[in-house]
Amino acid sequence: MNRIEDFIRDIPNFPKDGILFKDIAPLLQSPRGVEMCLEELLKLIGDQKIDKVIGIESRGFFFATLLAQKLDAGFIPVRKPGKLPYKTLSQSYALEYGEDAVEIHIDAIKKDERILIHDDVLATGGTAQAVCKLVEKLGGKIVQCNFIMQLSFLKGKDKLKEYNVKSVLEY
Q: What is the pTM for the complete model shown?
């Protein structure tokens, strides 16, 4: 396996009928796959200065922590409601049926800190858009939104038009 795509497993009809889930578990199980993916994610950032890296719950945590370490930056978890122990700021977003929300600690970002947002997949863009709003409410500057893969047919990038959006893979 010499390409990152070789480590992504397709799971038909998960989590419901008609969805083809892109599973990164085989990638995470391979030290070589993780190394290759991390190198590609770092190339997307280039020499931009990053103060903090946000990982979006939960699969975004895996590479966000590695990116933060390589970039000599802090790591910030953004989680579903009720999962963070300190005071939080919350942002809701629309789902296909209903809505959900994400939260960040209120002291996670200082004014004008340069923020990299990372998640495994950019699908419809609702979660990433909500995270961008949280960063801006706390005074951070979004340098880039990074993803391992982008499902372009779902047009999630359209919700992030004002940001620099990059992905290693595009489907």
A: 0.96
Domain region containing 136: 47-170
Q: Which of 40, 57, 59, 79 is catalytic?
A: 59
Q: What pLDDT was estimated at residue 45? A: 98
CATH number at residue 119: 3.40.50.2020
Residue 162 known to be catalytic: no
- Active site residue: 39, 40, 96, 113, which one? 96
Those residues of the chain that have pLDDT short of 50 are: none
Catalytic residue at 96? yes
DSSP string computed for 119-166: EEEESSSHHHHHHHHHHHHTT-EEEEEEEEEE-GGG-GGGGGTTS-EE
Look at residue 170 in the predicted model and tell me its pLDDT.
97
